[in-house]
Amino acid sequence: MAASPLAPLSGCARPATTILSRISTAIFFSPSGRTSSSSSAVLHRLPFSTSPSPQSLSPRTRGLRLPGPPGSDDELDSSDSNASPKKSRNEKKREARRAVRWGMELSAFPVPQIKRVLKVASLEREVFEALMLVKRLGPDVREGRRRQFNYIGRLLRDVQPELMDALIQASKDGDNSKLSTLSGLKTDDDEEEKEEEEEEEEGKEEDTICEVQKDEGRANYIELSTRWFDGLIYKDPLITNEVFSVHNVEFDRQELRKLVRKIQSIQEEPLVDETVSGKDALLTSAKRPLVRFLRSLAKKSLAE
């Protein structure tokens, strides 16, 4: 009879069955009703032990998580906590209107007070120049003033609101002690600085007045010379008498008569179609020396 191919396996299974039966007998007939430490050790050493592991009995499932750099979660939490809340549209509008109001109030102050407030608020020269420009605009230039105040408001948006309100209110009340407290300077130093600024501003105002007077004088003598030119060319007796009656300035009256007669003679020549362009050129060249002569005379007569 041929040997069964499962014979070796059945031979190996007998000792294992014997061991299990002995362990079971020891468990059930133990006086304490518990497995001994030796039997527990034997069970753990058996390669075919079918005891379920605690991990296999747990029904919990774990989700996948992408790996990240160490400390990334902490950085995100800190960045979220440190981020400033976003301002609403109404808050931005209120801040813009407040900054424009500051500019309007500052423009009403004298120049030394404006400089003092801007210095304490640590504002740049650009703000001062913008305020000086809006002070020079007249009240009738409404659109220009509105745009300039909006520009000043944009420059003042980053100023500390409490400090600017306190400075403007102290300037309105003339409270020098409060201004000194806000600026952190002594009153004596403030007075000296104020006097220096006033002297400097007075000098600038005088220079500006002189420039304006020069411009006005230039416009006046040009207007006067133009009136004289028209009166002499068109033989106005009143203007002719006025020009030749100028006594505070020495001028060549005969040269003036010659220049006037030259222009009048060209104008009195009969017009011919072929000579129209030539006559215009002659008139232009003849008028230039008379214009220069009369402007020089008018300028000297007004300066005396």
TrEMBL record:
Species assigned in the record: Dioscorea cayennensis subsp. rotundata
Region (Disordered) residue spans: 46-97, 174-208
Name this protein carries in UniProt: Uncharacterized protein LOC120249446 isoform X1
A Pfam family it matches: DarP
InterPro entries in alphabetical order: DarP, DarP_sf
Biased composition (Acidic residues): 188-208
Annotated Low complexity bias: 56-66
Domain of life: Eukaryota
